[in-house]
Amino acid sequence: MRSCRRESRVRKGPWSAEEDEVLINFVNQNGPRGWSSIQSKGLLPRTGKSCRLRWVNKLRPNLKVGCKFSAEEERIVVELQARFGNKWATIASHLSGRTDNDVKNFWSSRKKRLARTLSSTSQPTNKHPCRNQIKQNSTPLPQLPSNLEVPESSNSMIQVGAPSSLTSESIQTVNGSLISTNPSKKSAISESSWFIQHPNPNPAPALSESYNTLPLLPDHHQMIDFESVFAESITSFSQSSFHSTNGYDFDMSFFGGSLEGSCSKSVVVPVQRDPVGNLINNPDGFFDDFPTDVFDCLDPLPTSLD
DNA sequence: AATTGACACAACCGCGATGGT
DNA sequence: CACCATCGCGGTTGTGTCAAT
After folding, report:
1. I need a labelling partner for A61 at 20 to 30 A (CA). Which of A45, A123, A275, A286 fits?
2. Is the CA virtual torsion A218, A224, A230, A236 positive or negative?
3. Same domain flag for A168 and A26
4. Residue A285 placed within a domain
């Protein structure tokens, strides 16, 4: 069969420097198109698809090769993923020198890391049984500052706790918040990233606005006991500036750079509820991929009837 | 020193969209 | 309008590296 013979000539796997050179020469002469002709002309034993991918992901000019995502790039990815979903090419178009593959790999590795962190920390252990105990709904939520606002049009997913720098005493997160940690546990924190998704399906405002107006605490938000979830990773926090009577310390700059401080014990997450107040998981939400027991530590919010 | 796990990165595959005939 | 080739995108898998044990 002719097709079989042709397929047997197709080379797969890593590209050699010689192949790259041939491909670059081809693009220089013909532009980034007509990929299939590379194989049909016998220039390379690669499919057009493979050639295009190699060019787009590795050989194209002005690519950022071998350089990790900066904190700013991470923030942009998180924001745009929340807005566009898994439209990696669209997201990549907002990041100079990054490809859709870069963004996709970045996101999936971050997602795996978070899932792993959650699945491990949400499992009660014998070591710290009390700290790992899921908070029961008998505990009233602390009163939150009344001047907090949420951009209603925002569909932003914000990243909490991804460090842009580490010292022996603290973590500087991507949004500028400073979290004090137990030095012996900092590596555990550095492996953790938190994403919080705003459920509002409406289009987000322009990036420049939404970056500075990360969602805070309207009445449809809930709290995750941060200390419980991170029991194995965190033993103490400092830098809190809001203290509630039931032991929760808050400082909302944890959710954005415009306010001050950090959230020391709890994480506030926006949620959706049905008409009778039951928690609805966002069907397209990032949390859907988490172990189901992650949500066990969510407290029911007071409804408008309360 | 060997093993293991996590991670980043590269590449492939399947599928839908698009454009030409 | 149908068919086909090509392109582009998103999901997935494979592989190398490095740190921890």
Report:
1. A45
2. positive
3. no
4. yes
